Amino acid sequence: MIETERLLLRAPIPEDFEPIAAMSADAAVSRFVGGRPATREESWHRLLRHAGHWTLFGYGLFSVVEKATGNFAGYAGLAFFERGFGPRFDGDPEAAWAFAPAAQNKGFATEAAHAAHAALDARLGPRRTVCIIDPENAASLNVAAKLGYVRFGEVFYRDKTVWMLERVPAALRTAPAAP
Length: 179
Known about the structure:
- There is one protein chain.
- This protein is of the alpha+beta class and 179 residues long.
- The chain has a single domain (2-172), classed as Gcn5-related N-acetyltransferase (GNAT) (Aminopeptidase, 3-Layer(aba) Sandwich).
- It is built from five helices and eight strands.
- It has helices spanning 17-25, 27-30, 40-57, 108-124, 138-147; strands at residues 2-3, 7-10, 61-66, 72-79, 94-99, 129-133, 150-157, 160-167.
- The strands form two sheets. The protein has a five-stranded antiparallel β-sheet, with helices on both faces.
């Protein structure tokens, strides 16, 4: 478990299903996460996928709980989604975040994602991470920018073009070659 100023980040538990199902069925949330409201079955699979990452890799997407209220706020973290985008993307941990409407526009995504990245760095050392974001999703692009992500390409995914972004920690960047 990770505690930030306003949030608790923990591995998913079965009790997260109902709030994940409600969040995933919301049209505003699902517009950029899956492209359409999720069924209960799809939400159940999402919860199982989140939990499975912790079992297989020792890290994954955290369930995020607002400390002040105890309410499920959303999820954030890093995982492997095996999207089939090729070696420029696949194989690196992929950042993801989604928050319930009541938890949006409060800075929770940035706060939680920063904590998740720090936890991954502490566990595995600094490494390149990636994410995909719909170019119309200004809020997520803003979060990604605050985390240090920069666009390096685009790919057609689920009937639309999304941007591929990467975050390369300073310790891994190579100095440019001398002229």
